[in-house]
Amino acid sequence: MKVHERFLNYVKIDTQSVHDAKKIPSSEKQKDLGRLLVEEMISIGIEDAYMDENGYVYGTVKGNTDAPVIGFIAHMDTSPDMPGSGVKPKIIYNYDGSDIMLNDEKQIVMKTEMFEHLSKYIDQDLIVTDGTTLLGADDKAGIAEIMSMAEYLINNPQIKHGTIKIGFTPDEEVGQGAELFNIEKFGADYAYTVDGGEIGELEYENFNAASAKVTINGVNIHPGTAKNKMKNSILIGMEFHNMLPVYETPENTEGYEGFSLLTDMSGNVEKTLLEYIIRDHDIEKFNIKKDRFQKIADYLNEKYGQGTVELKLEDSYFNMKEKILPHMYIVENAIRAMENVGIEPKVVPIRGGTDGARLSYMGLPCPNLCTGGHNFHGRYEYIPIQSMEKVVELLIVIATVK
Ligand SMILES: [Zn+2]
Fold first, then answer.
1. I need a labelling partner for 143 at 20 to 30 A (CA). Which of 100, 151, 249, 259 fits?
2. Does residue 387 carry a pLDDT above 90?
3. For 158-182, how does the pLDDT look when each residue is reduced to its tens digit (9 = 90+)?
4. By C-alpha distance, which of 32, 72, 255, 43 is closest to 151?
């Protein structure tokens, strides 16, 4: 089976995950794909393939030479932010560089002026949606590419490779794909998630992340007799927010610039709640940002009385760079492999987190490789077949012992 044929089979299965489900997998239907993958793995010769009770799929391509054990990981779920059922992929053969009509009836068009990267794929074959759902290249393309790599290695025993471990996880899109990943049983020395975008992307840096919950306790009293007694928690909340740097917000930052973001605010005179997320690649700058929250809280408590401001800071995840740097050969091998198969490497910092970051801190160093897809989590998601084929080649070269 060709890699894109595999992919087309997978995207037809709805695997949308669900926020706040408090169980893994967050939606049972993810196991439908899990079962299909186990069957397919066994049929191509991965004898030990199985799915555990939480919907994690594991399998081994036995090595034919002594080498470090490399893992390849992709996730089965799709984003809760866009419908993932009834995906009707279409192939645009020999793309001519013009706007793409995704849905004639609903007049949904993918415009080249909006998506400049389309011009890179003229004469290639693009898989697109019908405009009403996402495509699911994130991350079923990663699964298909890993599968095709495994099949190729099994069918070509003359290629020398170490043991290859494969892991397909549920619930990456709701931030819990790494949670019940069995690193010990997986048994890889290091791994790659195949979950990135455009061909050539390679990522080993992500944000350090924390959340801040600010509770302001005010004093309410009849406004007619409030003089010197009322403490309006809404106003104190606004004062809190106004002490944060206005230029350190998502809409004013890019690249390696960190930010804090007010995600929610509610309140009345008596009580006000502000919720923030804090992000920075640099651990020192990250700590300074968290520290600033504490200093503002201290200042306002001094001004309005102890207990006025309660601050709860909580770390969410950390930059995997710290865990990758001692093993930079993992990244260097991937860069060399890209150059070998004619892919131009684009090493970029992730302005977010990945399961690989969590896994890196759990003891499995795990940078992220491209899948070849674009416009994840939306109706304009697409992937060129040629990019998928290139990524399969890339994975084979990474696995091969030179
Ligand atoms: Zn993904």
1. 100
2. yes
3. 999 999 999 999 999 998 899 999 9
4. 43
